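$ ./design --mode recover --in tokens.txt
reading tokens...
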């Protein structure tokens, strides 16, 4: 009768081309038979009459030889009929998908386990054992039939020792729980380290983005700040803009209203509406005279500048403007009358202004220019009033931290007369082009002519002349 393998997909016994195989009968024990039937992926019920070949068992489940010790010598005789171990189960099915095969863990070796039975004679204890701390544990070890031994396998792992002693089992259970808790804590530590590693990488990435943000121009930073400030606003009516950005938007609108409308409609820039700009203009409170708020800001600005960048020239000029009286509701007064500060006289206080006088400060080694005050007058500002305003402007700049080295203006008659009142003289035998600084007598303030106006004056005189005298 031909013996065939009952495993699915196996051709052992059906064809001799597959070679000679060893066959094993299914176990008669009900529990083992059920285990075999569970592991074999085949429909039907396995019975003790069925056979399985050696291809479906791991090598450590098959006994291929018998070992004997004859006169102290170890002898191994190969078996003609192979036999299975008592715990053998089929785990390998080469003709089926790989996930249907499984490998059982190897049985741990019993080498090194020590069990000392109770005996009236003193037993020889191993060299390493657990030392009890209390007197109760010491008496227990003396009367216990089992000794707890600290033993390790070949991999260095601790191995559990079974005992019939209740106390030893309790200690072993506690030790197992402690080791389990230790493994759990180590796992948590490992997970936390992984989280720290991920957070470190995210921090480095954010630092690179921040460093890149710091390298962009200041105006680009301002635009990004305005965008981020309004990114969570649910309605366009809730947008808020900084004062500096509104002033920049006013400059853009003055340059080109059509471009401003195009940029705002297509959201290229976070530009406020025209109504917002109108309200911002109304909220401004321009007034004539020296602005105290502006002087405080100039003081903070010059505080961090080196001395070389704080030296500059005071410039003033006068221009003609159109007459216009405007009533400011926020101030509760009319604007457009003559206003020369503390030098305004009673005869001019109710007259409409048609000239504006502006004072500027420009450093020698910087490109910025700062207006420090403006005044309104009828016609050209009187020389006496202009002289007082020049001295007041110099004192104000010196208090703000600026160093005034010179005064420059065009060649208007009132300007020349005011400079003469300060000490300027252009006579051939009495030339004087400087005055003492009212805030520091060790320094001088020099009068500097406005070169473009000198060239313009020469040009005009040449055009007017009809005859030239050559010497």
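writing sequence...
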């Amino acid at each position: 009768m031909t013996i065939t393998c009952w495993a699915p997909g196996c051709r052992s016994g059906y064809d001799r081309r597959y070679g000679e195989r060893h066959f094993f009968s299914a176990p008669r024990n009900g529990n083992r038979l059920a285990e075999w039937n569970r592991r074999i992926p085949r429909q039907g019920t396995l019975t003790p009459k069925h056979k399985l070949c050696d291809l479906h068992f791991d090598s450590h489940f098959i006994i291929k030889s018998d070992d004997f010790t004859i006169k102290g010598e170890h002898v191994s005789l190969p078996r003609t009929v192979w036999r299975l171990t008592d715990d053998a189960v089929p785990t390998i099915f080469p003709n089926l998908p790989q996930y249907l095969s499984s490998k059982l863990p190897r049985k741990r070796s019993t080498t090194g386990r020590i069990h000392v039975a109770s005996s009236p004679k003193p037993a020889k204890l191993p060299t390493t054992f657990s030392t009890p701390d209390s007197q109760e544990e010491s008496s227990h070890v003396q009367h216990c039939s089992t000794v707890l031994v600290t033993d390790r396998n070949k991999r260095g792992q601790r191995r559990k020792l079974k005992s019939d002693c209740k106390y030893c089992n309790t200690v072993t259970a506690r030790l197992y729980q402690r080791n389990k808790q230790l493994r759990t804590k180590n796992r948590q530590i490992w997970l936390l380290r992984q989280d720290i590693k991920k957070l470190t990488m995210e921090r480095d990435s954010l630092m690179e983005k921040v460093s890149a943000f710091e390298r962009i121009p200041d105006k680009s930073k301002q635009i990004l700040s305005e965008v981020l400030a309004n990114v969570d606003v649910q309605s366009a009516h809730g947008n808020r803009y900084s004062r500096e950005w509104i002033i920049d938007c006013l400059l853009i609108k003055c340059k080109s209203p059509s471009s401003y409308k195009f940029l705002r409609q297509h959201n290229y820039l976070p530009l406020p509406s025209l109504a917002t700009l109108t309200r911002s203009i109304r909220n401004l409170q321009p007034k004539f005279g020296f602005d105290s708020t502006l002087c405080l800001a100039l003081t903070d600005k010059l505080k961090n500048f080196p001395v070389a960048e704080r030296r500059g020239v005071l410039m003033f000029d006068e221009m003609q403007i159109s007459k216009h009286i405007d009533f400011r509701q926020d101030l509760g007064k009319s604007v457009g009358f003559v206003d020369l500060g503390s030098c305004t006289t009673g005869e001019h206080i109710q007259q409409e202004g048609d000239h504006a006088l502006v004072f500027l400060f420009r450093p020698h080694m910087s490109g910025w220019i700062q207006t420090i005050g403006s005044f309104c007058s009828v016609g050209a500002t009187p020389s006496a009033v202009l002289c007082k305003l020049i001295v007041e402007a110099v004192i104000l700049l010196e208090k703000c931290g600026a160093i005034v080295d010179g005064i420059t203006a065009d060649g208007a008659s009132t300007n020349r007369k005011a400079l003469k009142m300060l000490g300027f003289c252009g006579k051939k035998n009495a030339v004087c082009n400087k005055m003492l600084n009212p805030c520091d007598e060790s320094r001088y303030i020099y009068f500097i002519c406005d070169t473009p106006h000198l060239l313009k004056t020469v040009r005009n005189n040449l055009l007017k002349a009809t005859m030239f005298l050559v010497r």
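exit 0
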